[in-house]
Design a protein that fits this description.
CATH architecture of the largest domain: 3-Layer(aba) Sandwich
Shape: elongated
Structural class: alpha/beta
CATH superfamily of the largest domain: NAD(P)-binding Rossmann-like Domain
Strand content: 5-15%
CATH class of the largest domain: Alpha Beta
Length: 593
Amino acid sequence: MKVLLTGAFGNIGTSALEELTKRGHQVRCFDVKTKANEKTARKYAGQVEFRWGDLRNPADVAAAVANQDVVLHVAFVIPTLSVTGMGSEADPGRSRAINVDGTWNIIDAIKAQPKPPRLIFTSSLHIYGHTQDQPPPRNIDDPPQPVEHYAQHKVECEQMIRASGLTWAIFRLGAALPLRLVLDPAMFDVPLANRIEFVHTRDVGLALANALETNEVWGKVWHIGGGPRCQIYQHQLTFGVLEAVGVGRLPIEAFTTTPYAVDWLDTTESQRVLQFQRYTLDDYKQDVRKRIGLLVPLIRLFRPIVRAVVLSKSAYWQAHQMRRRQPDWHGKVAVVTGASSGIGAATAERLAREGVTVVLVARSTEKLDDLAVRIRERGGEADVITADLSDEGECLRVYQQVRDIYGYADVLVNNAGLGWYGYGDEMPWSMAREMIEVNAASVARLTLLFMGEMKRRNRGHIVNIGSIVGSIPSQGTALYAATKSFIDTMTTSLYRELRGTNVRISVVRAGAVDTPFFDKVANRSAGQRIPFEQWHVTPERVADRIWQLLRRPRRIAYVPSVLSIVPWIEMSFGWLMDSIGPLHLRMARNTTK
């Protein structure tokens, strides 16, 4: 019998090809010309006829269908990676052109023949959709309810074939896995508790070959599953194969819990007619072990590495690991000082977008109210506490007010600060004292107050906003750099105290940031313009880094990250700054005159 087999070098295609050639049929193989397909085709050289082509090309299809007795139409783009490198769900337009339009080209080509060949189309149990809430098994007359492009394409093809007027048969296949080790990310998309009917790919090939010799198959739809012995649950299938090849069971958190479109099938009638059910899952596991051979002991030897690689393919495992490292931030409370503008405002807005309730602290009630309105308009939660943190009593009031309203704070961002640039002896003492009170004393007071509460609850995170000048003392910023160095030292010391607890403390060493800070410095009494302010980053960038710190805590974060080399520069080239550094201060003074 002359048989055209589409998708001849895929999973089902090769199984059908084995049975057909074994029985002496004249097989014409139709598939796309890829290196992998050409390699498989060489095994059948001299036994079959090859026709390379594309289902989307009517001329290719017509040439392949010519003078055939039966067409076994197996080729289809599946949801996972196909031979062409793209799954049906990733590019539904391209997949539809191959699956649906390609099947239409097959039907047209068959009708154009003087003696139209019969057509067998391989469909899928996916067409039934989500049925885990229904008693099994699925029956042929169950209504199709496709939930993916792949299943929708199968349904459309079935409808076209039924209406074609041709002599046809439709085989709805169970889960037929390829005879090789495939660590496909799609395996994580099936819940472990899902019912699934396994069918050995060789049994599918046998059913297709037997159908050519059985008149009863025509004009009907058939279920091709492994039978009662292969009606299992996904965890038996997945873990069974992984254990067989040496990988072992994977954490259940790596798998979805969303129902998948597979189920058990009623194959009573198809088995009576086609007599194809021979193999079980145990047979399949043995086949895979034989196929990969010496890889099994190697997999076992390097099991931790292999498992890590496999788990890296699971989006669910990555999300689980992220949840373990990160708390659920929705509804948590963060106190942000210096929130009226710049880094503080950007940080408050960033945290609010993540579901954090932000308490805004600064001197300007008007600016804080405006920010709180913006946050609320975007669906966030914000509260305002107006306070002058240069006053220790105000620091205590902020702490007490947060406790009275929320009970505690999960996050404290100590951002409030002020600067001054110029010769140290020319700095007004009132300015110097205020800088010490805001930049150092208030940070220390708030840190110790909130840290005590966090330690009692054994959770929380304090982020202190430092500056790169704390690591590289520079002319013109003597006192400012000292306060930031104080923050660095205090943070590091407390970080070491808190080791072993669930309380974290970090310091952000930022470079120049595009905020009103520079204008304020230049406008203060006897102050000068800070040089190099044009080399700045945005406050949003600092806010993003703070958010990253909360999700993945560490002691120090530099913004931008290239500034991490600065401490080494000070150690190695401090002498150079001693020599040329004062030039910048003199230049700044001359510029302001």
